[in-house]
Structure formats: structure tokens, C-alpha cells
Amino acid sequence: RKEVEQDPGPFNVPEGATVAFNCTYSNSASQSFFWYRQDCRKEPKLLMSVYSSGNEDGRFTAQLNRASQYISLLIRDSKLSDSATYLCVVKLTGGGNKLTFGTGTQLKVEL
Amino acid sequence: DADVTQTPRNRITKTGKRIMLECSQTKGHDRMYWYRQDPGLGLRLIYYSFDVKDINKGEISDGYSVSRQAQAKFSLSLESAIPNQTALYFCATSDFGVAGASSTDTQYFGPGTRLTVL
């Protein structure tokens, strides 16, 4: 079983739609959680951290369920510029700053 | 100017050649990392360094070596390149800080080096 699993997609959605991505992680000792965004052939960039209480940044909402070892990302009112691959990322307790990356979920927002 | 730079950006080489990929950063971070990215496999950690005197193997270090020449520089070498080392290579840096109950240890990536081994 992969340490971090994501549906690879692609998710093709119309502009303005709401879309949700899910991610599961296998190690219950995981400490910190993140969503990174990666545009085609570019470097990953941090989109947002994911906190236990859930957090929101504009049109983006991240949720964490430690009991189910599950992370989600919700994008509301999607824009063409949201088209990218979204990487679920997990850091283990005591692992320094070593991150484990999911393979990513591809989003295509269409007119 | 970019905070994390990688050279070269693209490289095509032949099996058996020695290759060095270089990474420089102006962020003043102590921690640096080398990853490779392959389709369907995601990013995998090759080596990481928490300071100039600290080098650690990641999950896929075989066939690779690194050198941390200074806080700002971290090089990755392929001593004898083979075709299955064809991949997109990323360098990353991070600092470590604590904000409330959560760390703010964001990693910042360079633009990547696309390496092809024929």
C-alpha cells in the first residue's frame, strides 16, 4: 500500500464548479499535512497546510480526519487558472522535515 | 531572481557518463533536498541535508551521491548514469519554524532539471 494515495484523475470540470479531492495516508504517526500545487512541467508550490480544525484560504478549504487518516481539498468557484496537479503531502513525526508526496490529482477546468 | 536555482535545466547524456546537477539558494535555509519525479510515482527523496555537515540518504539513494559545498549549495551526482535515472530532478530548501501548534516547514522547490540518459 502506498504511504499517500490519491485518485490521479483527471477531473474535468466546468468553470465555476466546486470540486473535491481526497487523499488517504497509511502511517498514523503522520504529523503534518499539506496540499501542494504543480503546474505542468513546473516545480511544486505550497498551496496550503492542513490543520486538524480545518482551514480555509479564499476558495480553497482543507480538511483533516485523523481517525480515518484522510485529507481533503475543496475548491469552490473553480477558475481556468486552477488547472494543475494537486499533490497531497504528509510529514511523519520525528522525521525531520522529510515529506512524503502523493502522486497527485490532475484538475482541468474548462470553459 | 529565483530563490532556488538549478543547473542545468535540461541535460541529455549517455549511459555510463558522470553527471552533476547543481542547486543554489538565496533563501538562507539550512535544509536542502534532492528529489526525482517520475510519471505515476510522484516525488521521491534521494538525499537531504540539514546543514553543511549533515548528509542523509533518502528512500532512493542508490546510484547517487551528493555534496553540500556551502549552506547555499547542494549538488547531486550520478557517478555512472543509467537509463532508468531518466527523470525530472528537483532541489528543495526549507527552514523550520513553529507557529502555534503547527510547524511552518514549507519546502521551496527549484525549477527542476530534466535529465535524459540514453
3D structure, described in words:
The complex is a heterodimer of chains A (111) and B (118). Chain A is an all-beta fold. Helix content of chain A is 0%, strand content 57%. In chain A, strands 2, 4, 5, 9, 10 and 11 form a six-stranded mixed beta sheet that branches. The termini of chain A are far apart. The model of chain B has no long low-confidence stretch (mean pLDDT 91). Chain B contains no helices and 13 strands. In chain B, the strands form three sheets. In chain B, strands 2, 4, 5, 6, 9, 12 and 13 form a seven-stranded mixed beta sheet that branches. In chain B, strands 1-3-8-7 form a four-stranded antiparallel beta sheet, with no helix packed on it. In chain B, strands 10-11 form a two-stranded antiparallel ribbon. The chains are: A mainly beta (111), B mainly beta (118). Chains A and B meet through strand 4 and strand 5 of A and strand 5, strand 9 and strand 11 of B.
What low-confidence regions of chain B span 5 or more consecutive residues with pLDDT below 50? none
Q: Which shape of chain A, going by the Cα principal axes?
A: globular
Helical residue percent band of chain A: under 10%
| Termini Cα gap of chain A | 37 Å
The coarse silhouette of chain B is: globular
Tally of separate helices of chain B: 0
The major β-sheet of chain A equals:
6 strands, mixed
Q: What series of H and E elements makes up the topology of chain B?
A: EEEEEEEEEEEEE
Number of DSSP E strands of chain A: 11
The helical percent of chain B reads: under 10%
So what's the oligomer here? Answer: heterodimer
Q: Biggest sheet of chain B, open or closed, and with what strands and sense?
A: 7 strands, mixed
Radius of gyration of chain A: 13 Å
Distance between the termini of chain B: 33 Å
Backbone structural class of chain B:
mainly beta
List low-pLDDT spans of chain A.
Answer: none
